[in-house]
Amino acid sequence: MASTRRADFRNLHRLQVRWAEVDMQKIVFNAHYLMYFDTAISDYWRRLALPYEATLHALGGDLFVKKASVEYHSSARYDDNIDVGLRCARIGTSSVLFEGAIFRGDTLLITSELLYVYANPATQTSQPVPAALRAVFEAYEAGEPVTDLQVGAWDSVREQASTLRTDVFVQEQGIGAHMVWDDADATAVHALVSNKLGRPVATGRLLQHAPQVGRIGRMAVDRGLRGSRLGRDVLVGLVNAARQRGDREVMLHAQCSAEGFYTRLGFVARGLVFEEAGIQHIEMVLPLR
């Protein structure tokens, strides 16, 4: 394995060791380290902006573990905060090799190699790794962007944004379709984030709520990718659009479950909680000047 410093891993997944994972000596059972790497693999796919199941279904394949090796250097203990690093080290014709490392601070505890075979999901016979998927892995490991942000008119994003709105608002949250689309789409500024396979993963829109006041709404992020900065990218794109047209502030109606997300980006709650489309909301505002 190549160098195993923390700095060598672009993907670090934070975990905390719990009682159920340790033995009488309060050190982690050996088998749990593979579980930690498996959890980090899920996070790795999120960093690629690729919803795992939908992506592999669309590509017509799946990844199966061929070999997993673990080398122990030191033990993690109960209540340790550990960071699990993963990197895609090599892509063969039909295989993908991940190298992993677990750190407590800068101390290396565990190293691992996880070899996956890309195969037909029905027969589990190997097949070539799709060129498009290979390109995403290589771009991420090279530090290149794995998403594209488009800000523009409704006609330019209608098909992809509509698909994502349907998945999030209608299918997941049970909001009536008549409340998801309206005539304001035609005059709004829209933001759409797509991954490198062309799948829409986040969207939102900006209205002119009042003179020099923008209103952001219809914020939707693919369910499997929330918490991975995609919503932030949409929000920043819309705030920049509001600033460029001379708005002095932007406001929005945030679902209460997402209030913390907007607070971290500088929005402040204003007024009382209210119900909208059967969901608790709070108005929030961000001054622009």
How would you describe this structure to a colleague?
The protein has a seven-stranded mixed beta sheet with strand order 6-7-8-9-10-12-11, with helices on both faces. The protein contains six helices and twelve strands. Helix content is 26%, strand content 38%. The protein is an alpha+beta fold and 289 residues long. It is globular, with a radius of gyration of 22 Å.
Question: Which shape, going by the Cα principal axes?
Answer: globular
Provide the spatial order of strands within the biggest beta sheet.
6-7-8-9-10-12-11
**Secondary-structure element pattern, one letter each:** EHHEEEEHEHEEEHEHEE
Structural class: alpha+beta
Straight-line N-to-C gap: 51 Å
**Strand residue content:** 35-45%
Which stretches are low in confidence, meaning pLDDT under 50 for 5 or more residues running?
none
Question: What's the story with the biggest beta sheet?
Answer: 7 strands, mixed
* Radius of gyration, CA atoms, in whole angstroms: 22 Å
Task: Provide a count of the helices.
Answer: 6
| Helical content band | 25-40%
Q: What number is the mean pLDDT?
A: 94
Total number of strands: 12
